[in-house]
Each structure stands twice: as C-alpha cells, then as structure tokens.
Amino acid sequence: MDFTLTDEQRMLRDLVERIAGEQNRSDPSRTMAAIGGFNACFWRELADVGLLAATLPESCGGLDAGPVATMLIMAAFGRHLVLSPYVSTVVWAAALLARAGTQSQQQQYLPPILDGDDIFALGYGEGEDDSDTEHIQTVAHRKADGYEIEGRKSLVLGARWSRHLVVVARISDEQADAGRATVGAFITPMDSEGIEARHYQTIDGASASDIRFRKLFVPASARIGGGIDLRDALERIWDEATVALCADATGSMEAALSATVQYARTRKQFGKPIGSFQVLQHRMVDMLLAREQSAAITHRAALALDDALPARHRAVSAAKSLVGRHGRFVMQSAVQIHGGIGTTDELDVSHHFRRIEMFNLQLGTVDHHVQRYAALLDQA
Questions:
Q1: Among residues 120, 170, 133, which one has the least CA distance to residue 150?
Q2: Which segments constitute the Acyl-CoA dehydrogenase/oxidase C-terminal domain (predicted)?
Q3: Main-chain dihedrals φ then ψ at residue 170, nearest 5 degrees
C-alpha cells in the first residue's frame, strides 16, 4: 500500500500545520479550556482558507479531498492541542448531510457550516457502547406533523459551543431490513424546548454534555434524508470519525515524543544529559516505533474507508485498538522521562496525556475494538 502523499496533500498538511501552530502559540488550548470554550477566530480562519470544505464532495460546495485530508488535518490538531468542533460539525454533521440529506437540507445547512457560521454537535452515544446503531435506545415517535423524541445522549462533545444538534434515534413503528428498527437523524436547535443539557469539562479541556430529551418535538422536515433508513450512512461516518480521532492521537503522540527527546537532551543528572543514558535511549526508540506504527495503521485505515465490509470495519478497529495502546505507552513514557514536572499544566506533555486518555473513551475502547476485530475475522 502506497502511503506517499501527493503534492496537494503536502500543501494541505503544511497549511494546517501553520494555522494550527499559530493558534497554539497565541492561544494555547489549556487557556481556552480554562474558560470552557474554543477559539472562534481560529474556526473562522479554517473556513476562510477552505479547510472546513476540504473533505466534502464538490457537489455540496466542498473540495472532495478525501479521508486522507481529514487525517492530515486532525494530525495537525493533535500536535498543537487544538480544541475545535471539527469532528462533530464537519466529519459527522456535514458529511451526513452531504451523503444522505435532501437537497433543501443541504442548501439550508451546508453553506453556513462551510462559512464557519454554524456549529453542530452530535447526539449519538448513549453510554459505554457507542460502537454501532444497535445500541441506540432514544426513540422518535411519529406525530401528525413531525416527531417527538424521548431519550438521552451522553458525552455530546461541543454542545455548549453549538447552534444545532443532530439527534440519532430509532423510529418507532418503522422497520428496515431484517426486522431491525429504522434509524434516523434529526436536526434541532440547541435551545429547543424539550432539551435538558448538563455541560461539563472533559479531562482534555474540551466541553461535553449529557442531554435528556423530554417530548422534544421536531418537524418532519428536520429528519435528515426524509424517510430513509440512515443505519448504513451512520455506521460509515462512525468509521470515518474513528479514523479522524486516530489521526489526532498520532499527532499528539508525535508532539509528546518530540518534547521528550528535547527535554532529554537538556536535562542533566550526574553532570550528563539524561538522553545519554542507554536505558532512556532505548525507551525513546520504543516510543518512536510506537508512534510510527500508529501513524502507518491510521493511514492504512483512512485508505480502507472506501473498502467493502467487513474489510473497512477490520481496518478501523485495528487502528483504534493499536493507537489506543501505543498512545498510552508513549504518554506514560513521556511523563516518566520528564519526571514530576511532566504532570503539571505548564508543560504540553500533560495535556497530550489527557488528550490520549480522552481518545480512549470515545467511539469504542481498546478492548471493544479488539473484540470487534476478532469477530470480523470470521466474516468474508
């Protein structure tokens, strides 16, 4: 498999690296975390240079750069500790609208997203198991002129920042193939009556919410795609979002490794830089190998997103499980080499550690993906 980047992809990588690096220097994510927000000016700059449109199809106003572009963007965000609603707004909401939305929905919602004027949160997970659509218990009951939604969602990232929420729910009294309930998604303003949100800060400094829906009414026009079953589209985008998070984690691992190597060159014990000690040299080599393996398997998963099932699922689960294990190893090693200072807010290493821990809590744990991969081995 060829992992060589094209000239356009290298230009995209350099552009995102520059913008993300400037954001990190002028407004570190830990500062934004302290006020529970994100850098709105940075978000606007992403829109101005076309990065919010990079991965969407040309028919929807995008640049059709593909999943490798998402990987490059997210890796830069990870390296520079960027807090943003990119995954929920672009990878989830915009992609779902582009793939399954009606023409009127695309015309209404996509231009404000691409211009940086609208931010979306995604209500998908409902507990520890958010790996596929089978776990969804939130229900949309059909009414004469719309739907009434009952249920709850957990760990809804960026809801505090968002104007709109996409709610994934089972449709009552509707069945798709194999007798399974039809799964739909609905767009509703975050301030709608019937939404009760409890906001909190996650360990990596981002914002998340637990949301309860009590007789939330949405008009029929708010159902993405009209009356179609979105199960396959949602599971495809779930895989894409998982790969995006893996790319973010590999970028974070790279930054932590770089900081550790630099620290080992300057920190002295017994009159010598600690980087001259062979045991630490071996540990940093192991960190490098873990990072390179993680980057390679993430790139492999990004290229496999267009593969047929179950090959796509296998590639995604292999990446999520390996990046999760290697990411924790790299961060634990980075803190160990830094010593106690590695756990303080003053150093980026501690923030990268928290970012990896948050990564391991999203879209399936390491154990879940190992089990999923094993189950998929029996499928052709």
A1: 170
A2: 243-370
A3: -75, 145
